[in-house]
Structure formats: C-alpha cells, structure tokens
Design goal:
heterodimer; A: alpha+beta; Phosphatase 2c, domain 1; 2 domains; five-stranded antiparallel β-sheet; 9 helices; 17% helix; globular; B: alpha/beta; Rossmann fold; vWFA_dom_sf (chain B); VWFA domain-containing protein (chain B); VWF_A (chain B)
Chain lengths: 520, 225
C-alpha cells in the first residue's frame, strides 16, 4: 500500500529514506506514525511551523516501489540574473522523474463554463508557497521584478507545483472541466511604455487599472499555507471535481462539524458530502444530531444515512435524527428507569410518515410513498459518564450504519451482527426507516476509559473495513485523543480515496479526561 | 475482512460476432467508442467499473478483461463471422466470472454482483445445451458470483429466447419490429452506458445492485411473448 501517500510534514529527502524497504522504521517527523506520542502535536494546528508536502504531489511522479537509491539530482541551470532568491531548501529538490498515476481530464456534461476574457484575476492562492516563508511568490510586487526571464526549474514551484517538483514532467492539465481556469497570465512588465497616458488609478483600490491584482503582502505571522487544507489522500485519490450546487431547499451545506465538552464527555462530529454527490449536484444525504441532557450529563445522538434511491432521503435523514434525539431528551426528562428504545425508532419512523401524510393518519399509500422518497438508516443512542471515565453507551439502529469502540489501534464493531467478509458478493441492500426491523433491539456497553466511541455511516464504515489499513491508521492516530479543533475531524473524514465517494458522517465521544492537557 | 481498497462492479459485454452481424461491425465499434468517451466524463462511476468485452460466434474471443476504462487508450475492435454459439458464450463466462471475482477480491476490493450485457441478432445455432450452461452460470447456489444478465435481442432474435437469457424479465429487451440494426446497436450502447454509470453511482449506498436503463427503440421482451 502507498502508505507514504499521506505522509506530510516531511521533505523529499526524508521520504527517500523511507522507501518500501524501509517501511516500518519510525520517522520522528511523521505526524501519522503510530509510534508518534499521541497528542504531541496537531498536524493541523496553524501554529505548528511545519513544512508540508503538497498532497497534489500525488498527481506528480511518485517514487516507484522498491526503489532504494535516490536518482542523481539533475543539474540545475544557473538562475537567471533577475530571478528572485530561492527559498526552497536543497533537501526539497526532486530526485528524478518517475511514472505516476494521473487521472485523465474529465468532461463534466452539460456544465459549460464560459471563457473569461477580462483582466487577469488569478487569485494569489494559485501561487503555491515555496516554503514556510511564502513571501517570494510570482505575483508579489514586493519581490524583485521578473522581466520575462526564461523559466528556471524552480519557477514551477512558485506557481503551483510543490517544493521538489522542479525536475518533474509538467503536471497533467486540470482534472475536471469545470471551471477551467487559465494558468496565471504571463508576468507584466513593470514598465508599460505602450500606455501613452500612464496608468490610471482606481479610486477605491488605489491601484493602476489594467494591471494584475496585487494582493497585500502576506502576513508574516501566518506560518501556515493553503496546502494544509488540501484533502488527505489515501492510496489512489478520487478524481478532483468542483462540486455542483445541491438543490436549494432545504439548504444542505457540504460539510458540517461540531464539538464541545460536558463536564465528563468530549464530543466531536462531522458530516461531509461524498464526491459522487458533489459531482452530481446532489445534497448530502447523511445527517447527525447530538445534544446534551444537562440534568443527567448524558450525551444523546443520532446518525442517519439517507438511502440514495430515495429522492428526499436527506430530508428523511434530518427528520429521523432530530426526532430521535428529541424523543430521547424527553424520555430522559421523564426520569424513566429504562429508556423505551422502540418508542424512539417508532417516533422517527412516524415522523417520516407524517411528512408525507401532512398531519393525517398515514394510510397504506403514504407508507409506500415515505419508503420511496424519505428512506433513511438511523443509529441513535446515549452516552452517560460512569465512574472512572467509563463510557456507558446504549445504541439502537435501523439499517446499515454502525458504531465502533476504538481503543489504541483496534476497532471493535458494536452493532455488527454479521460478517460482510463472509459473502462472496457485496450487497448494498438495506432495510431503512420508515420500515422497522423486528430485530431492532438496543445494545448496551461499558467502554473502557482509554477508548473512543465512534458512530458512523457506511461512507466511513466501508472504507474502514476492519480498521487495519490506511483508513484505520488515519483515524486511530487522529482520534486517539480529542482533536482540539472540531474542524479537524471534518478534515480527516473528507479523505480522498478512489471509489469511496459516498457521504461520510462520524461522531466521536471521549471521556473528557482524554482532552489534551487533561480535563479543563 | 481486511481494509477494502475500493468497491468495484465488474461489467461484461457479451456481443454477438456471428456472420449476420458483419454489416454492423462498424456500428458495434462506434458504440464501444461512445461508451468509452461517455465513461471518461463520469469519473466517479468509471473508477468503480471493471470492464470486459467478449465476442462470440462459433467460439468466444476475449477482447478485453477487467479493464479500467480510464486508463485504456482505445477499446478493442470487434469483428464478425461464424455461427451464434450461445453455449460457448455462457461457458466462457462460467469460467471467467468466478475467476475474475476471486482475483479482484484477493487484491482487496469489495466486489458487487457482476453485470452481463448480452447482445445478439439471432437465434442460437448450437442446439439447446446452452440452457444448462446458462442455468449453472446464473444459479447463485452453483456459482456464488452469479451475474445479473441483461439481454438485448435484435433482428431475428426471438423474444422468448432473450427472456430465457436475462436473469429477470425486466432485464430482457427486444428491438421494435422494423428497427434498423445499426440504430438498435447505438441505442443499446446508450442504454448500456447509462446503466453502468447509474449502477456505479448507486453502489455507494442503499440501492438495488443494478440499475438497468431501457433503450429507446426496444421494448420489454415479456411484452412480446
């Protein structure tokens, strides 16, 4: 497996030392290394001055497997006299071309983007930084002028290639048709004698008209770069597409994330739209709701996966989650000895029927219509803190979403009643709300204080498998302790891996003492 | 169960290359090309499909096996000549499909039930023994990876034969009387493309395993028998 495909925070020379033959050696700079002390640093912490490898490198040549000796460096031509000083460390130089996987150009049908004929509006972000400093970019007017000098190998680094790609073959063209963007326009000459009257100035921006937009100088206090928000790539990446808008009503954002702590429990959650839905302009059909019942300190949650064949399943998922959580909160408020779990599922199912029946008693036809249009899976449950940091978890489900106890690097399924690996052929058929399975029963667990409860849809569960691969590694490392920033979970969850393009939703609950730095 | 590398739908096109198709080989090849181009515009679906093409006449020629169409420069060209040996066609699949599914699974993929798109313009010239081969191929208790077979009959193919080839009556289509064979082939490939794309996209979650698009100019075989 291309384990190093998602390594970050290292330069190429460090990577060379880690060819497959060296697999298994611990790299102190690898934030994903399982042996890295957990919580020692947050790979997305903007304060971390870590040099990162551009994940777009994956489009560029990747080291062929089994290679142990780095190829000799190609001789670098001398820099042109007017070339700005390079900030790329020597270690970031390329080690020679290698065959790469390149996703071909794709045409997005019926999605023509008209050509843009106006002035160059190339955003500054198109210029990838050459290193942590990032001051010396090709658009910056503060740097030395570049008077049309022949492009030195390093120039490519400045415009979008990653550090170390200078000798790589030119990157493949844009991998999706919409929107097609021009490469940054050729550099303007600093003096423009062809303008007889001299440059006119814009009244508001105070900049000459007809010149490329010159953004303000980068803030040196920001040590981060845009690449930290590139998707994490596991193995072969999914094709990159610009998402199409989903239907307008109800508003369904691409990604949601949340996080907070009660006095005893820490919650992080995220739900991201899958690539297939982004590409097809469909809404995110997954949903998640979490709430705290303060009098008992119980966290109540629901995770739903709208069935893709049901056209309004995103509404079904939202209704089911909200109804289930509301019903659980009501039952907790009634101080019942035991929660009535079948009532929770029935309430969620009934809500879907009422959506179709508009308040009337639902008839048979409305059952069929709700099944056809709103079908959704649901996992709902409660987490209560117990003595010694133990999590007391109760779960019930309708459909194929699931839950795990993550402890160390081991994922223990909490809801599996069959082993999908035993089937020769994989099936995606599900029984979903508003239909209820007679086998739906609640299950309770006491999870140890050094574990994490994970509840997720199959968009997470299918690529996870048994958790022994790249996906399992990513989450075992990233969720060993609660990430300080809730958005971190959304970033992890939106990993790119070919053929896994379903919506993904994941809820994680830790005992609060696992927060980095201890309870606070 | 270890980690899943990806989820795949193996698709097989079983195309009639008998002598009677000689005039329409160009249409077949054009159809293949249009399928290829269309799938390249569907990156999500194309990533999940592994495509095989088998031509059958007296015997069977394996033109393409488990190809990732995104990395194929060209699809193979079909030719025509010989009889219409259904038995050889289903026999080849009976050997090929379980082996392919095993291969993909051993590589770490999750494999969905294969889909066979069968296209013929005539009646079998091999007697009736093909029915037993076909039964073994499609009986899930005999062949674990038994495929769904979607059958398209044109020209002199009879509705009841096509109905026997398809694994469900809603998967059996015959061209409307008087239809031009070239047109029917083009429509077949259009429907094939849509079915492959929609099935690929539906694999993500909770849908029936196969989405079959009825081609224009065809009707369900069951309406004719």
């Amino acid at each position: 497996m291309d384990r190093w495909a998602f390594w970050r925070g290292r330069d190429r020379s460090a990577e060379d030392a880690d060819t497959p033959d060296a697999q298994g050696t611990s790299d102190p700079a690898d934030p994903w290394d399982p042996r890295e002390p957990v919580g020692s640093r947050d790979p997305w912490d903007p304060r971390e001055p870590v040099e990162r490898r551009d994940p777009r490198d994956l489009r560029e040549p990747v080291e062929p497997r089994g290679r142990t000796e780095p190829a000799p460096l190609p001789p670098l031509p001398p820099p042109p006299p007017s070339a700005p000083p390079r900030h790329t460390p020597p270690s970031a130089r390329p080690v020679g071309p290698a065959p790469a996987y390149a996703v071909p150009d794709y045409v997005v049908p019926e999605y023509e983007v008209p050509a843009y004929g106006g002035p160059d509006l190339t955003a500054p972000q198109r210029s990838a930084p050459s290193g942590p400093g990032r001051q010396d970019t090709s658009w910056s007017q503060s740097g030395p002028p570049r008077q049309g000098a022949p492009e030195a190998p390093g120039d490519r680094e400045m415009r979008g290639g990653a550090p170390g790609d200078a000798a790589a073959p030119p990157a493949a063209g844009p991998r999706h048709a919409a929107p097609r963007r021009q490469e940054p326009a050729p550099q303007q000459q600093p003096q423009q004698p062809q303008q007889p009257h001299g440059p006119t100035r814009g009244p508001l921006l105070g900049q000459p008209y007809g010149q490329p937009y010159a953004p303000p100088a980068p803030d040196p206090r920001r040590a981060d770069d845009e690449d930290r928000w590139q998707r994490i790539v596991l193995g072969r990446p999914s094709a990159r597409v610009e998402p199409k808008p989903p239907p307008a009503d109800p508003y369904r954002p691409d990604t949601i994330f949340d996080g907070w702590s009660t006095p005893h429990l820490t919650v992080r959650l995220a739900s991201v739209r899958g690539d297939a839905h982004r590409f097809g302009g469909s809404p995110r059909q997954d949903d998640v709701v979490v709430a705290c019942h303060e009098p008992t300190g119980t966290v109540v949650f629901a995770v739903a996966d709208g069935v893709s064949s049901a056209p309004l399943s995103h509404i079904g998922a939202a209704l089911a989650c909200r109804t289930a959580v509301n019903d659980l909160l009501v039952q907790l408020g009634e101080r019942r000895e035991e929660l009535d779990w079948s009532r929770v599922l029935n309430a969620a199912a009934y809500q879907l029927l009422m959506r179709v029946a508009h308040g009337r008693e639902p008839a048979e036809a409305e059952h069929a219509e709700a099944t056809r249009t709103l079908a959704t899976t649901l996992v709902t449950g409660t987490v209560a803190p117990a003595e010694g940091g133990i999590l007391h978890v109760t779960l019930v489900r309708a459909g194929d979403s699931s839950a795990w106890c993550l402890r160390g690097r081991e994922y223990t399924p909490l809801l599996d009643d069959e082993d999908p690996g035993s089937e020769e052929i994989s099936s995606t058929a599900v029984v979903a709300l508003p239909r209820l399975s007679a086998r739906s029963r609640s299950i309770s667990y006491k999870l140890p204080p050094d574990s994490v409860l994970l509840v997720g849809t199959d968009g997470f569960g299918v690529p996870l498998g048994d958790g022994t691969g790249l996906v399992g590694d990513l989450f075992a490392t990233g969720l060993a302790v609660p990430p300080p920033e809730p958005r971190t979970l959304a970033h992890l969850l939106d990993f790119s891996r070919e053929t896994f393009d379903d919506d993904r939703t994941l809820l994680a609950v830790w005992p609060r003492h696992r927060l980095p730095g201890g309870p606070r | 169960m270890a980690e899943t590398l990806g989820q795949l739908l193996p698709v097989y096109v079983l195309a009639d290359e008998s002598g009677s198709m000689a005039e329409y080989v160009g249409d077949l090849n054009e159809g293949m090309k249009s399928l290829h181009v269309a799938l390249l515009g569907e990156p999500m679906a194309a990533a999940k499909v592994r495509f095989s093409v088998l031509g059958f006449a007296h015997g069977v020629t394996e033109r393409l096996i488990l190809a990732d169409l995104r990395s194929e420069a060209d699809l193979p060209r079909l030719s025509a000549g010989g009889g219409t040996n259904y038995d050889a066609a289903f026999g080849a699949l009976l050997k090929r499909i379980p082996q392919d599914v095993r291969t993909l699974k051993s590589q770490g993929y999750r494999v969905h039930r294969p889909a066979v798109f069968f296209l013929s313009d005539g009646q079998p010239t091999c007697g009736e023994e093909w029915r037993e081969t076909h039964r073994r191929l499609t009986d899930r208790s005999v062949t674990g990876a038994a495929p769904n077979v979607i059958a398209f009959g044109m020209g002199s193919a009879r509705a009841e034969t096509i109905l026997s080839v398809a694994t469900q009556s809603e998967f059996a289509f015959v061209s409307l009387p008087g239809a031009q064979l070239g047109d029917s082939i083009a429509k077949f490939f259009t429907a094939l493309t849509k079915s492959v794309v929609e099935s690929g996209n539906a694999m993500a979650s909770g849908q029936p395993e196969l989405v079959v698009e009825k081609p224009e100019g065809f009707r369900l075989a069951i309406d004719e028998v």
